[in-house]
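Supplementary notes for students who missed Thursday's class. We covered one full example, reproduced here. Read the sequence, then the structure, then the short commentary at the end.
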Amino acid sequence: MRASCAGFWRSVDRANSRLQKFQTALSGASTGRDIFARRTSGDTTTIAVAATSVNEVQPRLSPDGRWIAYAARDSNGPEVYVSPFPNTPTARTQVSVSGGLSPLWSRNGRELFYADTTGMLIAARVETAARFQVKERTPLFNADSFFLFSSELGPVFDVSPDGQRFIMTRARGRKSTEQLVLVPNWTAGLPKSGKR
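Structure (token representation):
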């Protein structure tokens, strides 16, 4: 399917950001918000990745580039799905079971993190060899005091390379004002490893 859309394009592929860009855009009254992709060089034709009757947002490409995770919101609420990439119409697997937003792949591609609609951060252990399968879902911690849902293009948090720590922005109360804390020379406070 070929699509024409203008707007903000953003890379969601950490490993090879020069090859693929994604956009969520309002493409029409019948399909709502959809996900489109294009290469940044060579054939830059825009293709529809997820364009159904529901709103699809927050695309995240797996580290190996074979799978795309995204959130889709229908009348029952948002859920996280994974489809093969770029052949997204061939299959779609639901990852979340009781609502989900902000999918984020671990660096090794064996876990997919997402927040459920209560604010719980969930780790889904997945297999991606022959076909995509969710093996186990584990609640990690309640993250409802953090900003997890404020971006249509993807999560506003990240996971460490070993998948053991997260970086998030904490919400301070219910105020609409935000505060930025700048820590100059922050590396000076880190312990010296002795390695050079």
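Commentary. The chain is about 0% helix and 40% strand. The two ends are 52 Å apart (CA to CA). If anything here is unclear, bring it to office hours.
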